[in-house]
């Protein structure tokens, strides 16, 4: 059962940045429990439309109930990197007014032990956003090569003890299958010789395995590219990241698309002639101290906003 109510991070700043036309067509690519979507609907006119997307079957249940209550809203199950497919029959491809992505794992997913994301509650070692698709974390750890496990923990968790942790996982799985979250957390804890202050020693490894299992960075790269063609001129892209690798990817994508065509540096060319595909809107936004006090999980959030040139 959930132990903490889901609090939508950067709720008002995200919707403020996203909603430029109350009668427009918007996409909430990470519906979750509908926090952002409900505020978008509240601010939209009667002719506005909102499409929600999520992998999680529980999120889809919440979305179906919202769709029954509000004809302006529709929900589809899948990954946001299938954005082009999701939009194909909406009549809005290339005409989307705003796309919102709230990345990472949600509070309900963390708090429901049976989902397998938590290293402080015992549950089956799953970690899939959609438990009906792909390999679970337990299945992957049972067969992956030691070097592959080390690479994932180092690349996605930036954990300098990745090799020690991978070695310990392989050693333990030879004794008994690693099938529970607290079982894995203890293995990582014992293999980690230097604990970070105020951080559980399994944090980085769990985060890395989750990112790998759900192909989160690959999906993010794909959806950013697809957002360019999905947005109308003047349409907004709003992305909330919780991980430095995600934020770096988003930041670099916006920077690259804002530069436009690659002309020689000494060639006198105007900005408009460079044909930038995006314009950065404002600086990165972080939660207020008050929001962090109310919801400590918001502390690592970073929001970036870009607009497709008109």
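^ structure tokens above, recovered residues below v
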């Amino acid at each position: 059962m959930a132990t903490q109510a889901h609090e939508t991070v950067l709720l008002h700043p995200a919707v403020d940045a996203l909603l430029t036309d109350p009668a427009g067509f918007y996409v909430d690519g990470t519906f979750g429990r509908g926090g952002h979507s409900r505020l978008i609907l509240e601010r939209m006119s009667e002719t506005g439309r909102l499409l929600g997307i999520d992998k999680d079957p529980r999120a889809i249940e919440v979305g179906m109930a919202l769709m029954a209550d509000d004809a302006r809203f529709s929900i589809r199950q899948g990954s946001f990197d299938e954005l082009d497919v999701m939009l194909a029959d909406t009549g809005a491809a290339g005409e989307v007014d705003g796309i919102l992505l709230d990345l990472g794992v949600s509070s309900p997913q963390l708090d429901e032990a049976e989902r397998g994301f938590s290293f402080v509650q015992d549950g089956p070692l799953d970690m899939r956003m959609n438990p009906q698709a792909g390999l679970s974390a337990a299945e992957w750890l049972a067969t992956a090569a030691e070097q592959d496990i080390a690479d994932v923990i180092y690349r996605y968790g930036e954990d300098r003890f990745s090799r020690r942790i991978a070695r310990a996982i392989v050693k333990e799985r030879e004794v008994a299958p690693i099938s529970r979250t607290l079982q894995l957390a203890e293995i990582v804890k014992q293999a980690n010789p230097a604990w970070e202050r105020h951080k559980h020693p399994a944090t980085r490894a769990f985060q890395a395995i989750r990112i790998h299992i759900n192909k989160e960075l690959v999906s993010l790269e794909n959806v950013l590219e697809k957002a360019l063609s999905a947005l109308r001129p003047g349409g907004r892209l709003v992305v909330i990241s919780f991980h430095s690798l995600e934020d770096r990817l988003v930041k670099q994508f916006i920077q690259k698309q804002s530069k436009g065509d690659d002309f020689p540096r000494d060639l006198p060319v105007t900005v408009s002639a460079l044909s930038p595909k995006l314009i950065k809107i404002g600086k990165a936004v972080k939660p207020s101290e008050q929001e962090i006090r109310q919801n400590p999980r918001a502390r690592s959030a970073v929001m970036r906003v870009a607009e497709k040139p008109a």
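The first helix runs from residue 11 to 18.
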